[in-house]
Amino acid sequence: MIKYLHLTFILLSIISFIGRVIISEIRPELLKVKIVKIAPHIINTILLLSGFTLVLQGDWLSGANGWIVAKFIVLLAYVGFGIVALKAHGPTKWLAFSAAIASFVYIGIVAVTKNAWFFL
Known about the structure:
By secondary structure, this protein is mainly alpha-helical. It has two domains: about 1-60, no CATH class; about 65-120. It has helices at about 1-25, 35-55, 65-85, 90-115. Helix 1 runs antiparallel to helix 2 (about 35-55), helix 1 runs parallel beside helix 3 (about 65-85) and helix 3 runs antiparallel to helix 4. It is globular.
């Protein structure tokens, strides 16, 4: 149950992020609408809580699970790139957006493979 909740909120989170980046380009005034400002925080809070719950249920903190640490570090990078993508303009916006999407993809691949160094 928690796994499906987590997967659902992963999808909602990335859709929300991409949608807000598009809105910031087309109609930035919509980013000030209350639901558009609050919804991503609710979505991402539930996403994080379900992720932590899965980690605790899976007893992954007790062993050599460096992939979880890698996911967390890249999650912080994803958040940073996302903030830049939503606030910057021009090429910086699109570089940050690309880096955020690449971070998201990396996190997904690591989650599936359980290997932080899958690319080696």
